[in-house]
Design goal:
Structural class: mainly alpha
Radius of gyration: 20 Å
Number of helices: 3
Order of helices and strands: HHH
Largest sheet: none
Distance between the termini: 43 Å
Helix content: over 70%
Length: 84
């Protein structure tokens, strides 16, 4: 019985914590940071692929995507500094 009560308590705390994070916009900020990181990684991978295959279009698209990711991260950092 103690294990059941502890389990219910843990689940309740996890749900409560999730809602607090969601209400404060932290979840959106984390998603935006993840999007920026994802763009940077995909862009770098596309650049490497373009280098290996000697495809200039992939290289340029990769650079653009990587720079987009860097820009997103910079915007998020500025937003955190201004509003926190």
């Amino acid at each position: 019985m103690k294990g059941f009560i502890l389990g219910v308590s843990l689940v309740g705390n996890a749900i409560f914590g999730y809602h607090l994070i969601k209400e404060n916009g932290i979840l959106d900020d984390l998603n935006k940071q993840a999007d920026g990181l994802s763009d940077k990684i995909e862009g770098k991978a596309k650049q490497v692929s373009g280098t290996v295959t000697d495809n200039n279009v992939d290289k340029i698209e990769g650079q653009i995507q990587e720079n987009t990711g860097k820009s997103r991260e910079t915007v998020q950092d500025l937003k955190e500094k201004i509003f926190d």
